[in-house]
Amino acid sequence: MNWYFRAIGIRKVVEFVLLTILIVFFAGPLLNLVVLAFSGHWTYPDLLPSQWSLKWWRFVLQEEDVAQSIALSFLIAAIVTALSIVLCVPAAYAFARLEFPLRKFFLFSFLLTHAFPKMGLYVSIAVLFYQVGLMNTLLGVVLIHMINVLMYMTWIPTAAFRNVHAAQEESARDVGASPLRVFRSITLPLAMPGIFVASVFTFLSSLDEAQGTFLVGIPDYRTMPVVMYSIIADFPSSAGAVFSIILAAPTVILMLAAQRFVSADVMASGFQVK
Amino acid sequence: MSAQLSIRNLSKRFKTGEGVQGIDFDVNKGELVTLLGPSGCGKTTVLRSIGGFLTPDSGDILIEGRSVIKLPPEKRPTSMVFQSYNLWTHMSVFDNLSFGLKIRKVSKADIRERVADVLKLVQLPGAEKKFPSELSGGQQQRVALARSLLLQPSVLLLDEPFSALDAKLRYEMREELRDIQRRIGLTMVFVTHDQEEALSLSDRIVVMNGGHIDQIAPPEQLYEEPETLFVAQFIGKMNFMEGAVDEDKIRIGAQEFPNAKRLAGEVILASRPEDVSLVPETGQGGGLPGKVKQIMALGHYADVSVELAGGGTVRSFQSKDAVKAMHVGQDVRVSFSRVIPFSENHQT
Predict the structure, then answer these.
(1) DSSP SS3 for B211
(2) Could you give the ipTM of this predicted complex?
């Protein structure tokens, strides 16, 4: 054995051990989840279920409010994403291109909603919503989701716009494009990867949001994560596992899509505040 | 010949205190004029003002006799090649080149033909489908040049377009640019801090220093007859020595030169290393006494530094044959076949 370790080098061994630990940590729970979702009967110390079954899938997909909650979640996520693009992308352009007083302060202020305990923030917002009649409304849920995503949706596109070089915009002016045309044909397409990544973040974060939705949307606006809470409380864990997989699927698909389009440094550069 | 481009008394002051003032020069049709100077001298400010990317505080810019000072960049008959980041990385070479033509509503067939032609001109035939990321730095600058050429600008502006390239490529691009310019008779304003580039490329050079123009002259004249101490220092190698005025003569050691500029008081004499001759000490006087300090063989010639007995160092270029008889530490006599006098407090 010794000669073998010496031949491949201690570094390789350490790398292998670290990688294994990493895979166990990341893939282990997921694997457990998948097995659980397809199990009919699974008791402790068995390594695998004694009985495989699709009954929890049938159960979850046949529940009427489950199907409804899935549709609602996607609808809300789409609205949140669209609205935050409309709001934040122009703001990001301003942060990237214009010099105005307190520019850095405003950029940092987006971090504030992430600095406080979420529940405290939501409760105080709920009080406000109650007064203006936004409780139990679609708009209320959308607004509470948007609080979470303002930071990504501003910071990442700001960096994306900053990475469009002045010479690229100026050469477009130079060959005859009006400022509007430059933005449409040059600046926006060049910043697109960043905006795309931010939108994916936004969509996923809205899809996953439970606390705020629970507070503001109950009883009429029950999204997937909210319904999942009650299912986990009321039914065996297999039902929860099925639900988790349904909830995780869009995340995985969108992340893979994002990875194809853009490199990790697009995301990372969003968090360098300049 | 009427001027293709006229800069009239242009001034621009930035918040940092830097800027340009009193910039005034003409560029004739088909001429290549270089703005040369150290960084911060204002050459890019002038170029960007011509292109419309900067609004000067005062002055005027005329192209073919018409003032363009109020026009935005997209309305000016100029085109600019930037130092870097010229190309739009999300577009193919064809799309990069055709963007300006599409805005001008040129027909599709026409665009295809003109793009193919200009790519041949910049020696990248058939590169239409490539993306900027697939091109080398030199090729990218060729595409940028092609994009400007396509629009047939009245004046082509180049902002240190080759400075990001390595020395060999820079040399090639320079030759090519000169060749293209001669073939199509383009009027060009070229900005550089590289004097070799300016000397080899230009019909005339505008030397800028600290926001104003020091001298406008063809390369040879700039080299032979620098009008200011700055130009003398900036262009080529130069020795500087103190000289004494004696009525209508200027003296350095035993050598006398005519005081054509009628300078008074202390003067500085500038002399090119190729105008400095060295002879071994014979004890018979003549020239300034000195000691050879260093000999640098540079192929077909050698750069010899001589420490003068009266203080200071002069450099002399010697042929590779002459330098064979010299050695470090040797006593020599230094004389000058040509000096350019400047008065000590002469600034502009």
Answers:
(1) coil
(2) 0.81
